[in-house]
């Protein structure tokens, strides 16, 4: 897989103009021009840069999880360093919007370098983009225009600090708008929870728990065609519980069924559920149920 260590090399591969700054590039149509058009398709590649791009669709539907939406409003995409990128020509965008790319070293040693790690949307895949309302779109365009103005100005001792401050503002607004998107997509969130529950139920019913152990959230998310971070954020907003908590609830329910078999020891029950360490299973059971597995048996007189 080809990897690009510099912003210039990455933009050159995309067949885009060279950056004005070695670690920062800003393309902005300002609503009256066209963005430079990158190559139509690419095999998997990686790079050391962050990318923030706002575009509108002309043709094609965007997969949002397993659901297809035909968006007429704009979509904001966030790409983190070393995220695998691959695309084809099936989706066509308007050549309007903005694209901001900056090398990870551009923000090293700044407060933003720490803040950016807390923004989960950089861990989302491109089919989990932020879909903006017209008002949100205008807000983002204003910030992008301010960044472009500073980018095009002659660089001085204040330029970098100003640009980083504006980037921080843009990301804070993005975080706010993602919160809105989670709230507005309750139907989708419910569907995602149902899919998640079905995946775990199927895993338990087909004996994979005994064969392969407890599945990771990453494995489940991959089966659902969403990123692990997006799945976790969505379920947390909808239910107040993390994906791991939901998984544990399924395991505890299954444990109750197995505990009804008095011929099995607590350790055997733990191993059957995929736990490598029986004491951890016992602690988890007590945390969720308020009593130990042994007390649960005694409560139902199963000894």
Automatic annotation (TrEMBL):
What Pfam families does this protein's entry cite?
A: HTH_18
Q: Which UniProt keywords apply?
A: DNA-binding, Transcription, Transcription regulation
The molecular function terms of the Gene Ontology recorded here are:
DNA-binding transcription factor activity; sequence-specific DNA binding
Domain (HTH araC/xylS-type): give its ranges.
198-299
Question: Record's SMART domains?
Answer: HTH_ARAC (SM00342)
Q: What is this protein called?
A: Transcriptional regulator, AraC family
Which species?
A: Cellulophaga lytica (strain ATCC 23178 / DSM 7489 / JCM 8516 / NBRC 14961 / NCIMB 1423 / VKM B-1433 / Cy l20)
